[in-house]
Design brief:
- The structure holds 2 protein chains of 2 kinds.
- By secondary structure, chain A is of the alpha+beta class.
- Chain A has 19 helices and 19 strands.
- Chain A folds into 5 domains: about 90 residues, Uridine Diphospho-n-acetylenolpyruvylglucosamine Reductase, domain 2 (2-Layer Sandwich); about 120 residues, Uridine Diphospho-n-acetylenolpyruvylglucosamine Reductase, domain 3; about 110 residues, Alpha-Beta Plaits, CATH 3.30.70; about 90 residues, 2-Layer Sandwich (Alpha-Beta Plaits), CATH 3.30.70; about 40 residues, no CATH class.
- In chain A, strands 12, 13, 14, 15, 16, 17, 18 and 19 form an 8-stranded antiparallel β-sheet that branches. In chain A, strands 5-6-10-8-9 form a 5-stranded antiparallel β-sheet.
- The chains are: A alpha+beta, B alpha+beta.
- Chain A: It holds the Pfam family FAD-oxidase_C.
Chain lengths: ~500, ~400
């Protein structure tokens, strides 16, 4: 992380008073014991006490806090519900931690325009809860949806099981209000579609708290599909499973969800929840079809045929809602199930082209031997997003480091086969130092120039995403080479 | 010395832009120039023509991923994916006929630069929702890569999506990776006739709020495409599913008016026409494209109709309004006031005679803080302001 600024540390008392003048009452936390709750997010291997925690309640307060920090060169780490798996909300010793969790109101529900306006601290599931009495829901469903905030979802461009069919956060957000580090407030989008001008919503979504602080969000809601049914399909090899997934999509079918688990994950889940998963298979696929009944019944038959053609050794089709939920119970409990068989685990998040799955799984087994650690895989099969769970014991000296090295090897492997470092968890601090494995220096510099347009002093969440911080003045320099008009052999008119 | 620079590869694009940046020579960046009429005209001595930068780099139907060079004709891409039972589900509109040019022109680079979409926007999104990665050359003359070639990726800022709709003012895209989708097996349209604009939009919104998975929701008032008003809803997918959803939609909307069903063969040309603003093609007048909340569409039109001669039709469940002022005047102030009074949104001047168009902002003016942020972004990508200067806004 960037070295703490001793001057800021020295001025802590003065900063506390200034923030108390902006956010009165209990909105400024500076007692060490009370700040403890904020020292980490869901990447619990990393902990750091913040300088001060502030919980504003109004947009004016957010604006005043940021303006003050901007003027006095104080770093700010925005935080939603603190469920980041990549350390996105890890505090800085010399930084103000800005918690947005008092922004917890649903402001406007507009069924006719299928739009809901909420404050950023409303949970992902809270949006669905607010509209489900009319049969509506908010589609992106990260597995932490009961706890994670919509503001955090924007920061990370969260996905979930259903995003192959229904899109990521970026495809489901219509508008937002953002406070910039200089205190200015800008509104992007609204209930209408495709605002003109630069698509700053696209930049904000997935920006991991580095560009601005979201204070209001407008999302698209959808009517719940009429029905959903699932198939539970076991395969003797991961190649068969991978081919089945490709054939389903090749047949023009985009399932609502398509999840795969490997043998260690299947066994851990089955031991934990007794979902009725077969133990004698190498790969288990859950394919969920949702939509109108006539369509779902038809597609269940099609997928069953495709599974049989791909040597499925085990097929069950849900005949009731209860049975469908049982199929999912094991998959949804996969993380805690792995938590039962290992004192600690690291959840990785790379994406690969699906055709590379058998190769990647084989290489991952070799890597597991090399690092002498176990790994269980759950996999959003439709979109190639892998979640290897690396098993380790933090109390054994060196195992955390070994697990991290193993994880880095897996992500490098994802990039090597044409994939990416992170599908939905974000870069944060976890994958920051691997960015140079995926991007050149020129690529990363252009990304950081975007940062300079929003935050030229690098005050918002510095130390995340980018391995090396370049000063904006340096990034802005042009290296010009005056000369001849290029490629003179080309005809010009 | 005026030059038409026609690079054949990304390296030559970089060379050309680097030269222009060093000499501070502005460039007009074009594919085939099919959408030159959109935005403010760019007047530069030099043109960077990307039409030779064409061809499919990789296409893997089973991965739902396609990588193409920026100058590849969009018609060629649509034909290729169709051969494989797939489509670009954002259904990019063809501006050709509306702008007085031939149909079927344009390149993928232009489609992305203008962030095009069609009637399916309300279900599947616009071009920006289907871009996965890009290779581009910034106005600094530096090549960069952003995004990836897989359908799920959050590694770094989403520059590919942000470059969509930037009209080539930030960077020159040299290649793009897109998400493709299976093409629906069949299409049917439910048509209700004789509705007023208000009732039509109520019906469209009710349908969009149902679980019928409507993929097009438009209203063509009387005289725009037939003698009576036509309110149309599109259903796509497997035959059994389309039939089933048609029935449920029919019962849901039974109280609105007489219903008929258009089958696949009649549906396709209708939706292509709505996509390409066919009711305003070949007709004199100034054309604006207005995006508001769906329920606000009829109000915008009603306010303007009180005092101005116009014809208008609705797509996107009422939220996209194509307005044609038949007197050929701009009526910019009245239009922007009506949009603001209806809850806000965006109005874009799409077609007008050149001299008149230059006198007003083509795109929706932005509040100062937002405009300043946009200028800062432009400076970071193109500090010398050499890429399509003034195409969107003066200074950008």
């Amino acid at each position: 992380m960037p070295a703490p600024d001793p001057q800021v540390l020295e001025r802590r008392r003065e900063i506390v008073s200034a923030l108390q003048a902006i956010v009165p009452g209990e909105g400024v936390i500076h007692d060490e014991r009370e700040m403890r709750a904020y020292e980490t997010d869901a990447l619990t291997a990393y902990r750091q006490m913040p300088l001060i925690v502030v919980l504003p309640e109004t947009v004016d307060q957010v604006s005043a806090v940021l303006k003050y920090c901007h003027k006095h060169d104080i770093k700010v780490v925005p935080r939603g519900a603190g469920t980041s798996l990549s350390g996105g909300a890890l505090p800085l010793q010399d930084g103000v931690l800005l918690s947005m969790m008092k922004f917890n109101q649903v402001l406007d529900i507009d069924f006719e325009n299928r739009a809901v306006v909420v404050q950023p601290g409303v949970t992902n599931l809270g949006i669905t809860r607010a509209v489900e009495h009319e049969g509506f829901y908010y589609a992106p469903d990260p597995s932490s949806q009961i706890a994670c905030s919509i503001g955090g979802n924007i920061a990370e461009n969260s996905g979930g099981v259903h995003c192959l069919k229904y899109g990521l956060t970026t495809n489901n957000v219509l508008g937002m209000e953002v406070v910039l580090i200089n205190g200015e407030v800008v509104r992007l989008g609204g209930k209408h579609l495709d605002s003109e001008g630069y698509d700053l919503m696209a930049l904000m979504t997935g920006s991991e708290g580095l560009l601005g602080v979201v204070t209001e969000v407008t999302v698209r809601i959808l009517q719940k599909p009429e029905t959903a049914r699932a198939l539970l399909i076991g395969f003797p090899t991961s190649e068969d499973g991978g081919r089945c997934v490709a054939d389903v999509i090749g047949a023009g079918i985009i399932p609502g969800g398509m999840e795969m688990m490997d043998k260690p994950a299947i066994h851990a889940a089955e031991d934990f929840v007794n979902a009725g998963y077969p133990r004698d298979v190498e790969a288990l696929l859950i394919v969920e079809l949702d939509g109108p009944e006539a369509e779902v019944d038809y597609l269940i038959g099609r997928v069953e045929e495709i599974a049989r053609a791909n040597k499925a050794s085990h097929i069950r089709i849900s005949e009731s809602e209860e049975e469908r939920l049982t199929f999912w119970a094991g998959r949804k409990a996969a993380f805690p199930a792995v938590g039962r068989i290992s004192p600690d685990y690291l959840c990785m998040d790379g994406t690969i082209p699906r055709r590379e799955l058998p190769k990647v799984l084989a290489r991952m087994r070799e890597l597991a031997d090399k690092h002498n650690l176990g790994v269980a895989n759950v996999f959003h099969a439709g979109d190639g997003n892998l979640h290897p769970l690396i098993l380790y014991d933090a109390n054994k000296p060196g195992e955390l480091e070994a697990a991290e090295a193993f994880g880095a090897d897996i992500l490098r492997l994802c990039v090597e086969v044409g994939g990416v470092l992170t599908g939905e968890h974000g870069v944060g601090i976890e994958k920051r130092d691997l960015m140079t494995d995926m991007f050149t220096e020129a690529d990363l510099k252009q990304q950081q120039r975007v940062k300079c347009a929003f935050d030229d002093k690098h005050l918002l969440n510095p130390g995340k995403v980018f391995p090396v911080l370049h000063r904006c003045a340096e990034l802005g320099k042009m290296h010009v080479h005056k000369g001849q008009l290029p490629f003179p052999d080309i005809p010009r008119f | 010395m005026d030059a038409l620079l026609k690079p054949r590869n990304a390296g030559e694009v970089e060379e050309a832009v680097r030269w222009a940046a060093a000499e501070e020579q502005p460039l007009e960046v074009i594919g085939t120039g099919s959408k030159r009429g959109l935005g403010h005209p760019v007047q530069t001595a030099h043109v960077l023509d990307l039409s030779a930068l064409a061809g499919v780099e990789t296409y893997e139907p089973a991965e739902l991923v396609l990588t193409v060079k920026a100058g590849t004709p969009i018609a060629e891409i649509e034909a290729l994916v169709e051969e494989n039972g797939q489509e670009l589900s954002f259904e990019p509109m063809d501006y050709g006929p509306l702008l007085g040019r031939p149909a079927g022109g344009g390149t993928i680079g232009g489609v992305l630069a203008a962030n095009l979409a069609g009637p399916r926007r309300i279900k599947s999104g616009a071009a920006r929702d289907h871009v996965l990665g890009m290779e581009a050359v910034s106005g600094r003359g530096e090549q960069f890569v952003s995004g990836g070639k897989v359908v799920k990726n959050v590694t770094g800022y989403d520059l590919p999506r942000a470059l969509c709709g930037s009209f080539g003012t930030l960077a020159v895209t040299t290649s793009a990776t897109l998400k493709v989708n299976p093409k629906p097996e069949t299409t049917a349209t439910l048509e209700i006739s004789g509705l007023s604009d208000e009732d039509a939009v109520t019906a469209l919104c009710r349908a969009m709020g149902s679980s019928a998975e409507v993929s097009g929701a438009a209203h063509l008032p009387a005289g725009l495409w037939g003698e009576t008003a036509r309110t149309v809803l599109r259903l796509e997918g497997f035959q059994a599913s389309v039939d089933y959803r048609f029935q449920s939609l029919n019962s849901l909307l039974s109280g609105f008016g007489p219903v008929r069903r258009l089958e696949d063969g009649d549906s396709r040309p209708l939706w292509a026409g709505i996509r390409d603003a066919a009711p305003h093609v070949g007709k004199a007048g100034t054309v604006w494209r207005v995006s508001v909340a769906p329920t606000a569409g009829p109000g915008v039109v009603a306010q303007l109709k009180e005092k101005l001669p116009l014809s208008a039709f609705y797509d996107w469940s009422g939220g996209l309004v194509w307005i044609c002022f038949e007197d050929g005047e701009l009526h910019e102030a009245e239009l922007r006031a009506a949009v603001a009074a209806s809850g806000g949104g965006h109005a874009t001047l799409v077609r007008a005679t050149g001299a008149v168009a230059a006198s007003v902002p083509v795109f929706q003016p932005q509040p100062e803080a937002l405009a300043a942020l946009s200028r800062r972004l432009k400076e970071q990508f193109d500090p010398n302001g050499i890429l399509n200067p003034g195409r969107m806004v003066t200074g950008v």
